[in-house]
Amino acid sequence: MNILVINGGSSTLKATLRELPGGALPLDPPPPLWDAQADWGRRPGAAQIRVRGPGGAGAGNEIAIRSPAEVLRPVMETIWSGPAKALDGPEQIAVIGHRVVHGGVAFQETTRITPDVRAEIRKYCEFAPEHNRLELEAIEESEQIFGPKIPQVAVFDTAFHTTIPQAATVYPGPFEWYEKGIRRYGFHGTSHRYASARAAAILGRDADVSDPLALRLVTCHLGNGASLAAVRGGKSVDTTMGFTPLDGVMMGTRSGSIDPGILIYLVRHQGCPADELDRLLNKESGLKGVSGISGDMREILAAIGRGEARARLAFDVYVHRLCREIGGMVASLGGMDALVFTAGIGENCPPLRAVVCQRLAFLGIRLDAAKNAHPVMDSDIAAAGSLVRVLVIRADEDWEIARECHRLCGTGLAHVGGNSSPQHS
After folding, report:
1. Does the N terminus or the C terminus of the chain have fewer Cβ atoms within 10 A?
2. Domain boundaries, the chain
3. 110-124, 149-163, 266-280, range with the lowest pLDDT
C-alpha cells in the first residue's frame, strides 16, 4: 500500500511516499520511497524545491509561483517522472494523508475527507489562517492531480488534545465564549502523539492511562512554532497553545502568551488595526521581535557569540518562558518521569537543553553533558542518577500521519473516521 503524506505549513511543504505492508506497523519509520520539500518563504514569488527518490536519486530547482497552491503539482509530478521517480503513475497511490492544524470541536479523530469535511475545515481558517487555508488548498489541488477516486484523509493537530479535561480548556471569560467554541484546543498534536509514544517505547513503559503509575511526560515541540504538552499514559491532559497557535511559549516570530491588556492598549491608544496586530504577533514577535535579528535560534546563538546583547536577552526570555511553562505542565501531571525535546530547536540546540535542565535541577534532573553535546536521536541523555529522564526524539509527523492512514485503511476506507460528516460536541 503506497501512502502519500502532504504536510503543509505557512511557508513550506513537506511530502513523503511510503510503501507499507498490511498488518501491524512498527513504531520506527521505514525509509520513504520518495520525499520532497518546498520552501516559498525565502524569496517572494519563488519556491525552492528539493526531491529525493529511490536510492537517494534526486534533484533541486526553483520555480516561479503566484500562490503557494501552485507548488503542489510540480512537486507531486516528480513521483512518477524525472530522476526521483518512484512510481509509474498517480494511480499507484492508495491514500493521501494531510496534516490539518485546526479541527475545532468538529473533529476529534482522523477523518476521511468529504465535501462536508472540507466545508468544516474552511470554517476554522479564521482560527489558524496561516495553516488551515493552505492545507485546504493542498487538499483541493490533490483531488485535481490524483482524481476523486483516491481517498484523502485529514489528521488534525487538535485531535490529540481532545482528552484534556474541561477545567483546562475553558477560558475564564464569559461562559458564552466556550459555548461558541472559544476554548483551548492545543496544536502540534501529531508531533506530541508521536513523541510521547516513542518516549514510552524508549523507556520500556506501557502507555496505559488506567495505570495509576502511568508514564508522565512533558513533551516540548520546539521549532519555529513551539508548544508543550503534558501527557499521562499516552493521553494529553494539558498543553500550552490554546484557541489559536499563537498562545503559549515564546516562538521564532510568534509572541506566545502576552497580557491581553497590551492589545487593548494598542487598539485604543495607538489605533492599531486587527490586521496589523495579527502581523505583529505572528511575524514580528518572539525571538525575532526581542532580538531584532532573526526568529532562527541558530542565528540568535551566532549573534550571542558576537556579543550582541539583544540576542542574549531573546535567548534568556525564551528560556525563562519555556521553564515557566514546563513547570505548569508538571503541575498538571502531578510530577514528571521524563522531559522530551523534539523538533528543530529541541533536537539541535544543546545549549538550550543544558540551561533548561539546569534551571529544573530542583526536580531531580541531571544531564549527561557529553550525551547532550552530541545526542543520538531517540535516546536518553540524562545522567545515570537523574530522577527524571531527558529524551531527544526526532520529530516525524509524516510517519505518524502515515500510520493513521494505514490504521484507517485497515477498517475500510468507506467508514474512515466513523462518520464521513463532522460530529459536533
Report:
1. C
2. 2-164+408-415, 205-397
3. 110-124
Per-residue pLDDT, 206 = 67
Alpha helices in 244-295 (DSSP H): 260-270, 274-283, 286-291
Q: Looking up cell 519509520, which residue turns up? A: 29
- Here the cell at position 415 is 467508514
d(CA 164, CA 182): 15
For the chain, the straight-line distance linking the first and the last C-alpha, in angstroms and rounded, comes to: 34
Q: Identify residue 14 by its one-letter amino acid code.
A: K
The label of the residue with cell 464521513 reads 420
* One CATH from 3.30.420.40, 3.40.630.30, 3.30.230.10, 3.90.850.10 for 2-164+408-415: 3.30.420.40
Q: For residues 131 and 9, give the distance between their C-alpha atoms in angstroms, rounded to a whole number.
A: 6
For 363: left if phi > 0, alpha if psi spans -120 to 50, otherwise beta; the answer is: alpha
pLDDT in tens, 35-45: 988 887 667 77
| Between 175 and 26, residue with greater pLDDT | 175
Query: Distance between CA 245 and CA 131 in Å, rounded?
Result: 10
Query: Are 245 and 101 within 8 A, CB to CB?
Result: yes
Active site residue 157: yes
Q: According to the model, what pLDDT value does residue 419 have?
A: 35
Among residues 231, 248, 242, 241, which one has the least CA distance to residue 163?
A: 231
DSSP labels, 140-195: HHHHHHH-TTS-EEEEETTGGGGGS-HHHH--SS-HHHHHTT-S-----HHHHHHH
The DSSP bridge partners found for residue 116 are: none
Homologous superfamily (CATH) for 205-397: ATPase, nucleotide binding domain (3.30.420.40)
Q: Do residues 37 and 62 make contact, with C-beta atoms less than 8 angstroms apart?
A: no
Answer whether 2-164+408-415 and 205-397 agree in fold: yes
Distance between CA atoms of residues 300 and 317, nearest Å: 12
Which of 35, 39, 116, 157 is catalytic? The answer is 157
Q: What is the pLDDT of residues 333-366, one digit of tens each?
A: 999 999 999 999 999 999 999 999 999 999 999 9
- pTM metric for this prediction: 0.88
Decide the pairing of beta strands 389-393 and 379-380.
Answer: antiparallel
